[in-house]
């Protein structure tokens, strides 16, 4: 979709001529700012269309049945065979950039989000129809992360990864229950306005899987201690919390190592901040 197509589609959806500007390109969609009030997202292939249709349905379910503040679609459909959605733009800044608000307010809101995701797992067909998400092979992940930390000169982190803490997480009890998982619950997708959580963005990666995957996102955005407190208050089993922290520590180490080797893995300030947060003492 080019700019002219985006202008035509957005103007038709809103019912009047509007100004449109591109935001950025994604893996399976194009995004456009529509004035200051909406975001137009368009799939670029059949798989992306399926994901976008599922996302719109899931967000509506969350808004109707839970306290999760997901974006509302002001219009959606198919354009030249591919899915699109015109979403209302939510106010706020990313949680890891927002000014501090009332003590514990954002964390309390996040507890509500995590609890709602646990409770929604079996309620509706839209949730049961989401793809299944799985943990990576943990021993392999830990081994790769340990070597990455050694290469980075982070010997204390490497020692933790071969110590009893990491071993307990990889060998701990298996949790078979699948919950609704956002799949990318990181800072840029958690908006804060007025000291409270104002929205949870980008549900394209949502699925059914272990809560550890969302604990990981919170750990790299809030820090390990806060992530553990939020997840525990939402009823997440301790084994899942520990695995979420392990995922965060391993994957931030691997991304940082890739950056040092010259591989594209993200902006350096962001990767270093996420590594620091994930490795905060718990």
Structure commentary:
This protein is α+β, with helices and mostly antiparallel strands. It is 48% helix and 17% strand. The strands form three sheets. It has a five-stranded antiparallel sheet. Strands 6-8-9 form a three-stranded antiparallel sheet, with helices on one face. A two-stranded antiparallel sheet has the order 7-10. Helix 3 crosses helix 9 (224-233) and helix 9 (224-233) packs antiparallel against helix 10. The longest helix is centred in the last third of the chain and has 23 residues, at 238-260. The mean pLDDT is 90.
Order of helices and strands: HEEEHEEEHHHHHEEEEHHHH
Low-pLDDT ranges: none
Report the C-alpha radius of gyration, rounded: 20 Å
Q: What is the CA–CA distance across the termini?
A: 47 Å
Question: What's the helix count?
Answer: 11
Major beta sheet, specifics? 5 strands, antiparallel
- Mean pLDDT across all amino acids: 90
Topology:
Elements: H1 3-14, E1 20-25, E2 29-34, E3 38-43, H2 46-65, E4 73-79, E5 82-88, E6 93-94, H3 105-119, H4 125-128, H5 138-152, H6 155-161, H7 164-171, E7 179-181, E8 190-193, E9 196-200, E10 207-209, H8 212-222, H9 224-233, H10 238-260, H11 268-278
Antiparallel strand pairs: 1-2, 2-3, 3-5, 4-5, 6-8, 7-10, 8-9
Helix pairs in contact: 3-9, 5-6, 5-10, 8-9, 8-10, 8-11, 9-10, 10-11
């Amino acid at each position: 979709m080019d700019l002219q197509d985006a202008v035509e589609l957005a103007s038709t959806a809103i019912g009047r001529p509007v100004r449109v500007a591109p935001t950025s390109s994604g893996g399976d969609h194009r995004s456009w700012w529509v004035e200051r009030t909406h975001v137009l997202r368009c799939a670029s292939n059949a798989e992306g269309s399926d994901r976008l249709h599922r996302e719109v349905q899931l967000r509506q379910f969350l808004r109707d049945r839970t306290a999760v503040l997901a974006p509302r679609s002001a219009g959606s459909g198919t354009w030249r065979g591919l899915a699109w959605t015109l979403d209302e733009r939510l106010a706020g800044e990313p949680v890891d950039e927002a000014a501090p608000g009332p003590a514990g307010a954002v964390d309390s809101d996040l507890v509500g989000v995590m609890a709602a995701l646990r409770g929604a797992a079996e309620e509706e067909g839209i949730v049961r129809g989401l793809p299944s998400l799985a943990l990576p092979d943990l021993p392999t992940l830990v081994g790769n992360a340990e070597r990455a930390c050694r290469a980075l000169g982070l010997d204390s982190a490497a020692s933790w990864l071969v110590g009893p803490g990491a071993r307990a997480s990889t060998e701990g009890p298996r949790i078979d229950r699948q919950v609704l998982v956002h799949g990318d619950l990181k800072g840029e997708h958690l908006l804060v306005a007025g000291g409270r959580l104002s929205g949870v963005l980008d549900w394209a990666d949502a699925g059914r899987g272990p809560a550890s995957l969302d604990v990981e996102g919170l750990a790299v955005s809030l820090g390990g201690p806060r992530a553990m407190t939020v997840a525990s208050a939402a009823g997440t089993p301790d084994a899942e919390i520990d695995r979420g922290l392990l995922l965060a520590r391993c994957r931030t180490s691997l991304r940082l190592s890739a950056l040092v080797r010259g591989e594209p893995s993200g902006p350096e300030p962001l990767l270093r901040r996420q590594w620091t947060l994930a490795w905060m003492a718990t």
